[in-house]
Design brief:
By secondary structure, the protein is an all-alpha fold. Helices cover about 65% and strands about 0% of the residues. It is elongated, with a radius of gyration of 23 Å.
Amino acid sequence: MGKFRDRVEVSFISHSSQFDYLKEDIQELAEKFNFNHQQLSKILDLSINELEDLLNHKGNITNEQQEKIENKMTMLNFGFESFDAKERVTLILNNLLSDYRLTTESLSKIISVEEKEIIDFRKAQLIDRNVEMKICVNVIMLHFVLHN
């Protein structure tokens, strides 16, 4: 009887670059949202030359750049459909509270709303629309300020 191997190796040979799919995804993103090269350059954090080189199979990007580009494109293409805006802000608010060890009292003072309103917002209870808007905008701005 013949011996069986306990392992199989499979290799694929391709004439395409590892970034071919990325090029296609970038082009689809540009078409979907009517982005020009300047906009794509800024959004993807690439110089115009790097972007054009990538699209023309001439240049290379680092694995880190590739990962960031993929994450941004995923969020732009699919990330805003599946979450409710209020749910997103609640997630950011909860992260601020835990990451910076803030209390609802201190957060209420920072964003100039009553503590009870933050508590009610976190519990998804009905609150005044203007207060809700103030919480949303100020939580997002605070997140931006603390993360930059």
